[in-house]
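[Meeting: bench + compute handoff]

Bench side (C.D.) handed over the final construct sequence. Compute side (W.E.) agreed to return the predicted structure before the next meeting so the bench team could plan truncations. Sequence as handed over:
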Amino acid sequence: QVQLVESGGGLVQAGGSLRLSCAASGRTFSAYAMGWFRQAPGKEREFVATIRWRSGSTYYAESVQGRFTISRDNAKNTVYLQMSSLKPEDTAVYYCAARYSVGYNNMPSGYDDWGQGTQVTVSS
């Protein structure tokens, strides 16, 4: 079983930046892709970004395109989410997830392992 542990959340003012990390441990890590999702109070979990583990290809939700950057360090089995120009509407619990099936997927149901989440709060 793979464990995913997020870190880096916190409180930041609008316009500021944060970098989230997600470290994978456990059995030999062989995800096809890693994704970041977020869930605000009273809302459904939504896709933020995904990266294919081998190729590094990335895809973003329109709401974060140009402001967020997903990246990975294969040697450390870690995926990052650099968030810039943060807005109050970015406030949510952010989750990383691993997908083992081939193909692009931006739905939570398409991911197999999940971290516990890290809170990001953006004040206005």
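W.E. noted at the follow-up: The CA atoms of residues 23 and 76 lie 8 Å apart. C.D. will use this when planning the next construct.
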